[in-house]
Amino acid sequence: MPRTATPPEAGQSGAAVHFRALETLYRSAPINRLFASRLEIPAAGRSRITFEVDPAYYHAAGAAHGTLYFKMLDDAAFYAANSLVSDRFLLTTAFNLHFTKPVRAGRVIAEGTWISGRRRVFVAEAHLVDEDGDEIGRGTGTFMRSHIALAGLAGYRAEG
Question: Which of 32, 50, 54, 136 makes the best surface tag, with the fewest CB within 10 Å?
């Protein structure tokens, strides 16, 4: 999907360190003890989260609950946006979600892409793809710079 804008320049040497530190921050979040998943930030404005759908995430009709869709879409869009901001933690201010197909089992990939915003407010989108390559959900989020310094968060560190 084409971007609507060009991402801000990120310093080549510092960008990779920032991306790895964000990946470590993701792993350190207590919520991710409930949702086994792995974040990768391959480039500025891009993210990918891989996870397995487990019956523990089912609603009463035997498919993944919308909570799982929202969490993974929000996280993928958030990290795509925060990959462009190396000093502050972003906060989700709005998120629009579309469910396109139920999923019951298997590996799912959430891919996030930054769309616009350079200073205070960022817009990013994400989509979920099941192991057959079918889209199962998509969403768009708005994220705002907070007063929380990334450097002050215990989980924000590059691991070697």
Answer: 54
